[in-house]
Design goal:
Blueprint: E1 4-7, H1 11-22, E2 27-31, H2 34-49, E3 59-60, E4 75-79, H3 84-94, E5 98-101, H4 108-121, E6 124-127, E7 142-144, H5 147-155, E8 161-163, H6 170-173, H7 179-182, E9 183-187, H8 191-200, E10 207-209, H9 216-225, E11 230-234, H10 242-252, E12 255-259, H11 271-282, E13 288-294, H12 305-313, E14 316-318, H13 321-324, E15 333-335, H14 340-349, E16 356-361, H15 371-378, E17 384-389, H16 394-402, E18 410-413, H17 424-432, E19 436-440, H18 444-456, E20 463-468, E21 476-480, H19 482-485, E22 494-499, H20 527-537, E23 544-548, H21 554-562, E24 567-572, H22 575-588, E25 593-597, E26 615-618, H23 625-635, E27 640-645, H24 648-655, E28 663-671, E29 674-679, E30 682-687, E31 691-698
Parallel strand pairs: 1-2, 1-5, 2-4, 3-4, 5-6, 7-12, 8-9, 8-11, 9-10, 11-12, 13-16, 13-17, 14-15, 14-16, 18-19, 23-24, 23-26, 24-25, 26-27
Antiparallel strand pairs: 19-22, 20-21, 20-22, 27-31, 28-31, 29-30
Length: about 700
């Protein structure tokens, strides 16, 4: 069994200890002080080791003989400083196989002694480097190489100094003239440190005893409170809170004096690289834990308690910038990514590190969310376990806010759904037949579009409740008319509830009466033939259908009314018919019909039009049936076709279809409808023209 010894009461040291503990890898962990021991114990207890007797086996090397230290199976905490000779003795006595130096970047002497002890015992040594994080590339600060250079610089200027270098450098800072008035020191709240500060004369309000991590806001508040002009710090990397200090200095317009990181000249590995090496040495397959989390509307108060806990525990967090801003975990590495193409490469780099990864999604993970697609991509990874944690959807939040239930409401989203033509038909249909429709949207532009849609498609009586910036301080509910929707100007996130007092009951069968169509003298497919022809099309709710030779548009309208998700293209060459089609579309308020003026197949050439039709109804071909079929086949090798004809010439063309290798499941039926007419006291049947209905599928690719 591989035994590991980790040096460092640092964040990196604690993370490595947690990593080993979680994976049941035997490790000793050395910390210098009682305070460091307490922090480590707390970290390990929180990571699931509560009640483990091994964690109580602590050794103060300053007081005990190394010979009395006994190995255990999980994590042992060693408190106290060692010299090189004590390190060597411990390595030999405990049979250590791997030493990891995760001490502070500025702890040079300790690192040198660790290196020498490992060299003399022949034990493998790995150096865990501290992540630098983002930094201002322009380096808008004064950089020095040592605390003495920092003292020289600060002695040459005037103004109050905020010392965040730790207690070890305080003695040097006392060389600054009038330091007792100028220096405010932030140190760890331990008895030894406080006694040292008192001895140096740094007391009262000039002594800030606090345990980090410190947020940007906290640093800024302290700078303002004490009227700080100069901040002195070490370039301690991400986990040392360096970025938050520098950004605070920049935001408050003060000068930062930075003691450079000596580690930049040293070799070593990142935390993730060290974890991989531990995995390889111990022969363990160590999985990352990936949590896909719904964040609700964007306010941390609307996170579930379980989601908040996972975020606090995370080592790495992915998400859009808007979502990352609500996260309070300052120690986690943040990635401003929300697309799989950006996330997957980073997860590959973290493979085998045993880290806790959080990926953030707005709203609820199962409700119009990108979570589902990413989960399908991640769930098969052998290097990770994946779990989804739901959030509060904007619909449930808004329903509660307005007092409306949503179990009997329609719910749609136009957020990020592309061109208006892709969703307008389905939305219009849904609102027409629903008393309540919750609509997820983006910004004010979508609210304005909604207002125009309601007015254009005979839905002016609808009332709109618009939820603005839900869960944020700017939250409000707007009661709007369709006309008022067009004048919404406030920028932000919206969700709407559309209330339709005139909601229609949706017919479940075909059958618009012929008399309801505007017809004039244009030929029209009669009601009974329409029903049978549409039945033979075998439409689906999201089909794309051509109505070729549309006439009055009766077939197109019947199809479009079946589903708002169906897209219909009415193709017609005659000007009067085109006018009637448009009028009938407006009468029945069907935005999912587009009119194409021209003669088929010329107006349907593949290179000229981008539609991908799944079905076609041919009511008139003008003697160009074969040409039309050729073009349709080029557009989709697996279309469903229905052809109506009454002329002998077209009937002759139909008989030739049986020899076309592209066609399968050919069916030709003849239908004749007779209608009763009253003559005196009698009902006489009067026959309509017989209609031939031909239906078939294209057979796919034909060699």
């Amino acid at each position: 069994m591989c035994k590991i010894w980790i040096f460092g009461g640092t964040t990196e040291g604690r993370l490595l200890a947690e990593y080993c503990s979680r994976e049941k890898i035997e490790a000793w962990v050395s910390v210098a002080s009682e305070y460091g021991e307490e922090l480590l114990q707390e970290e390990l207890m929180e990571s699931g080791n509560a009640g483990n007797p091994d964690l109580n086996h602590n050794t103060c090397l300053a007081k005990k003989s190394l010979k009395n230290v006994q190995a255990s199976s999980v994590i042992k905490v060693l408190r106290g400083r060692m010299d090189r000779y004590q390190m060597e003795e411990f390595i030999r006595n405990q049979g250590i196989h791997l030493v990891i130096d995760a001490t502070h970047p500025h702890a040079r002497l300790v690192s040198e002694e660790i290196q020498e002890a490992c060299g003399r015992t022949g034990v493998r040594l790995e150096r865990c480097l501290r992540a630098e994080g983002e930094q201002n590339k322009a380096r808008d600060w004064v950089e020095v190489d040592s605390i003495q250079e920092a003292v020289s610089f600060l002695s040459s200027v005037s103004g109050v100094i905020f010392a965040t270098t730790g207690s070890k450098e305080l003695e040097a800072l006392c060389q600054i003239p009038d330091y007792q008035k100028r220096v405010y020191a932030r140190v760890l709240p331990t008895s030894n440190v406080l006694k040292k500060c008192e001895k140096l004369g740094i007391t009262g309000s000039h002594l800030i005893a606090m345990q980090g991590p410190f947020s940007l806001e906290m640093n800024r508040a302290l700078i303002r409170q004490f009227d700080i002009k100069y901040l002195v710090t070490k370039e301690s990397g991400r986990t040392g809170g360096f970025l938050e200090k520098i950004k605070a200095a920049e935001a408050e317009g003060i000068t930062a004096c930075v003691i450079g990181n000596p580690e930049k000249q040293n070799s070593g590995d990142t935390f993730t690289q060290v974890c991989r090496k531990i995995s390889k040495i111990t022969g363990k397959t160590i999985k990352n834990q990936i949590a896909l989390i719904g964040t609700g509307m964007g306010n941390e108060q609307t996170l579930t308690m379980e989601a908040a806990e996972k975020i606090r525990e995370a080592d790495c967090i992915f998400g859009a910038e808007r979502l990352l801003r609500i996260i309070k975990n300052e120690q986690a590495v943040r990635y401003p990514y929300y697309l799989a193409a950006d996330i997957i490469p980073e997860l590959d780099r973290l493979s085998g590190c045993g880290v806790k990864v959080v990926i953030l999604f707005s709203g609820d993970t199962g409700f119009y969310s990108g979570c589902g697609k990413l989960y399908e991509t991640l769930k098969g990874r052998s290097d990770s376990s994946v779990r989804i944690y739901p959030g509060i959807s904007s619909v449930s939040y808004f329903a509660a806010l307005t007092g409306y239930s949503y179990q009997d409401a329609a719910v749609l989203s136009i957020h990020g759904h592309g061109a208006e033509t892709e969703w307008i038909g389905n939305l219009t249909e849904t609102i027409r037949f629903s008393a309540k429709t919750f609509l997820l949207m983006s910004g004010k532009e979508d609210v304005q579009k909604l207002g125009r849609l309601l007015q254009n498609y005979h839905l002016q009586n609808c009332k709109v409740l618009a939820g603005f910036q839900l869960s944020y301080p700017q939250e409000k509910v707007l009661a709007l008319t369709p006309e008022a929707c067009e004048h919404v100007e406030e920028t932000g996130l919206y969700i709407c509830l559309i209330l339709n007092p005139d909601a229609e009951k949706k017919a479940v069968t075909c059958g618009i009466q012929d008399e309801q169509f505007l017809r004039d003298k244009v030929p029209m497919t009669k009601e009974e033939i329409r029903a049978l022809s549409i039945c033979k099309l075998h439409l689906q709710k999201d089909s794309v259908c051509y109505d070729i030779g549309s006439g009055t548009g009766s077939i197109a309208i019947e199809i479009a009314k079946r589903s708002g998700q169906i897209q219909v293209y009415a193709i017609e060459k005659k000007p009067l018919a085109l006018e009637l089609i448009q009028k009938n579309i407006e009468k029945f308020a069907l935005p999912n019909i587009q009119v194409i003026a021209g003669e088929a197949p010329d107006c349907l050439k593949t290179e000229e039009r981008s539609e991908h039709p799944t079905h076609a109804f041919i009511g008139g071909s003008s003697g160009r049936l074969k040409e039309i079929l050729d073009v349709l086949y080029e557009k989709n090798h697996a279309m469903r076709i229905v052809i109506n004809c009454i002329s002998l010439e077209t009937i002759r063309e139909l008989t030739l279809l049986e020899t076309d290798s592209r066609i399968t499941d050919l069916e030709i039926i003849q239908v004749q409808v007779s209608r009763a007419k009253t003559v005196g006291g009698y009902h006489l049947m009067q026959g309509e023209n017989p209609i031939f209905i031909c239906s078939f599928d294209f057979a796919g690719d034909v060699c």
